[in-house]
């Protein structure tokens, strides 16, 4: 499929897939969306603790990089698992230039290591951040009771509806520990109902720029 780098409305870049008319991040602002959905509505719920995070759709590594930046402020020790079926290329990463956009020059080596490190192996990114990348189809994921927080950042239901079903959210529910949280940019009614059907308690929250709402789902086990 044809892929090209485009500039979003906040000045940061993302990858556009022409055949699907779909982007890796919101065209209204890649960095703004990442902060709003995954940091403000997810990571910021936790502080002064050890935290296991699962990202469904590792993609460009933007969410992982921002999490590393923000974890230092929240005094978090993080084990981060990123699942991705189709990794981005080094040429695409260079054009995206997230280090400059985030003014994160002090993390150049860490960001490079995120992408250059081996798949299927946990690596140390910093004293308080470990990364384990898994190159596999989301439908094959089967970790259980392992995570406190899930960033659900798959391509939209319009182009990949099979990733937004009860079957997938049952896997996500099983992957979370009790009181674990899943956040996603999606606010579709069908997505909310699929989450509720497998046991999640679901909240509608204000969305990032360009979206009225987003969803946050929590697992409660009595």
Task: Describe what is shown at a glance.
With 222 residues, the chain is an alpha/beta fold. It has helices at 30-40, 62-74, 90-96, 98-101, 108-116, 166-175, 189-197; strands spanning 3-7, 13-17, 22-23, 50-56, 77-83, 122-126, 129-134, 147-152, 176-184, 201-206, 213-218. Strands 6-7-5-4-8-9-11-10 form an 8-stranded mixed β-sheet, sandwiched between helices. Strands 1-2-3 form a 3-stranded antiparallel β-sheet, with helices on one face.
Describe what you observe in this structure.
By secondary structure, the chain is of the alpha/beta class. The chain has one domain (29-89, 106-218): Rossmann fold (3-Layer(aba) Sandwich). 28% of the residues lie in helices and 29% in strands. The protein contains 7 helices and 11 strands. The protein has helices at residues 30-40, 62-74, 90-96, 98-101, 108-116, 166-175, 189-197; strands at 3-7, 13-17, 22-23, 50-56, 77-83, 122-126, 129-134, 147-152, 176-184, 201-206, 213-218. The strands form 2 sheets. It has an 8-stranded mixed sheet, with helices on both faces. The chain has a 3-stranded antiparallel sheet with strand order 1-2-3, covered by helices on one side. Helix 1 packs across helix 2 (62-74) and helix 6 (166-175) crosses helix 7 (189-197). The longest helix is centred in the N-terminal third of the chain and has 13 residues, at 62-74. The protein is globular. The mean pLDDT is 95.
């Amino acid at each position: 499929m044809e892929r090209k780098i485009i500039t979003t409305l906040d000045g940061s870049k993302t990858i556009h897939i022409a055949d699907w008319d779909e982007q890796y991040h919101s065209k209204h602002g890649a960095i703004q969306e990442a902060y709003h959905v995954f940091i403000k509505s997810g990571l910021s719920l936790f502080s002064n603790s050890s935290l296991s995070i699962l990202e469904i759709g590792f993609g460009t590594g933007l969410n992982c990089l921002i999490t590393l930046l923000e974890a230092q402020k929240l005094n978090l020790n993080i084990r981060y698992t990123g699942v991705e079926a189709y990794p981005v290329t080094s040429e695409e990463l260079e054009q995206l230039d997230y280090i400059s956009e985030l003014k994160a020059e002090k993390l150049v080596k860490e960001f490079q290591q995120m992408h250059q490190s081996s798949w299927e192996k946990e690596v140390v990114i910093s004293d308080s951040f470990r990364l384990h990348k898994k190159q596999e189809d989301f439908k094959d994921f089967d970790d259980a009771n392992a995570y406190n927080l899930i960033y659900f950042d798959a391509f939209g239901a319009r182009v990949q509806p099979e990733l937004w079903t009860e079957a997938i959210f049952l896997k996500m529910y099983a992957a979370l520990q009790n009181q674990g949280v899943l956040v996603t940019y999606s606010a579709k009614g069908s997505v909310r109902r699929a989450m509720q059907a497998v046991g999640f308690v679901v909240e509608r929250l204000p969305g990032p720029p360009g979206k009225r709402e987003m969803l946050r789902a929590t697992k409660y086990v009595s």
